[in-house]
Amino acid sequence: MSPDPSPYDAVLLVSFGGPEKPEDVVPFLENVTRGRGIPRERLEEVGQHYFGFGGRSPINDQNRAFLAALRDDLAGAGVDLPVYWGNRNWDPYLTDTVRQMAADGVTRVACFVTSAYSSYSSCRQYREDLFDATDAVDGAPVLDKLRLYFNHPGFVEPAVDATLAALADLPEDVRDTAHLAFVTHSIPNTMNDGSGPEGGAYAEQHRSVMAEVVERVREETGRRHPHELVFCSRSGSPQTPWLEPDVNDHLEQLHEQGASGVVMVPIGFVSDHMEVVYDLDTEAMATAEKLGLPASRAATAGIDPRFVSAVRDLLLERAAVERGEAVDRAAVGSLPACWDRCAVGCCPNPRAERPALAGA
Ligand SMILES: CC1=C(CCC(=O)O)c2cc3nc(cc4[nH]c(cc5[nH]c(cc1n2)c(C)c5CCC(=O)O)c(CCC(=O)O)c4C)C(CCC(=O)O)=C3C
Ligand SMILES: [Fe+2]
């Protein structure tokens, strides 16, 4: 018997979006930073990262690959639902996709967001944009956001294997003693303080994933590698404190301490988008090279079949919840599986309160 996805009649992949050609770069950055107070110099610098890659972010192609993999996964499991895609900041925009779903007669949608952790930027901002999209479309379907999945085995297990593979990429004589630098996007300290229902969830969730990966790597290699949670892609005003240490400063520090080598594990990101290919593969790798510190980078989850099928698991789990059935929620590490609907004060907007979907 095929699994039952009712009451859902569609899945929506929700992502950030990125430019695809040089003319897109400035309008994309304007979309992202509207009203955000990002200094001009920072924007010019980030624009250069995109121009350095021909004006094309890798993120949309990664989402296209993910869509194809997800459609195959669902079809293979006998889940017969259409899968749509919409972005917050670039074409295909969420509003256009919601309009298409309405035209196709879709009524209730399970939304999978390409962002695994709690925080305003990684959770509530998506919920606000989902609200805006449904608000703009007559007869819009009901959109439910699938729960956060940082501790879903389908997200954590690929990170463990990727860390083992990246250790194997290091020269043999430094492999056993190498440090693990778990990397995520920096956010303002105040945004971390407000994240999750009780605050501090962003850093706490990352630390939990880090501890789980370190332990599982130990089970495989017999070594508990020294490790740290570090941050990349800081923006905003220099006067505003953001989460630290920056990955580049951390590499300098490791070098000073006489570390043998380092693996960067980008647990904050689900695919190799610009923060990964520029901030880690280009900038942080150049820092490591300058220091003479052997370094490698672990793969992101990308289209790992375990990650793709995690979407199906989350969809079927939530469908059962909505039908009033008891569910077993997959989760690994020290934290329980996340809630389905965010609490009222969860991850507040740092500027002004805005309506958001998928709340309690
Ligand atoms: C937590 C977090 C994630 C991870 C969760 C998730 O995945 O959503 C994330 C993802 C991403 N961020 C991205 C791009 C950008 N983020 C910016 C700015 C900002 N990000 C922030 C946070 C996050 N961002 C914050 C607090 C700001 C400051 C402005 C504000 O308060 O909003 C800026 C403006 C320039 C700059 O300041 O860097 C850009 C261009 C892309 C696309 C990459 C590509 O094109 O491949 C992706 C996936
Ligand atoms: Fe960002």
Automatic annotation (TrEMBL):
Its main location: cytoplasm. Keywords: Cytoplasm, Heme biosynthesis, Iron, Lyase, Metal-binding, Porphyrin biosynthesis. Fe(2+) binds at residues 185, 275. It catalyses: Fe-coproporphyrin III + 2 H(+) = coproporphyrin III + Fe(2+). Its EC number is 4.99.1.9. Fe-coproporphyrin III binds at residues 57, 126. It is an enzyme of class 4 (lyase). The keyword Chaperone does not apply. It comes from the Bacteria. Pathway: Porphyrin-containing compound metabolism; protoheme biosynthesis. It is found in: Cytoplasm. The keyword Manganese does not apply. Involved in coproporphyrin-dependent heme b biosynthesis. Catalyzes the insertion of ferrous iron into coproporphyrin III to form Fe-coproporphyrin III. PANTHER family: FERROCHELATASE, FERROCHELATASE, MITOCHONDRIAL. Belongs to the ferrochelatase family. This is Coproporphyrin III ferrochelatase. It comes from Nocardioides hankookensis.
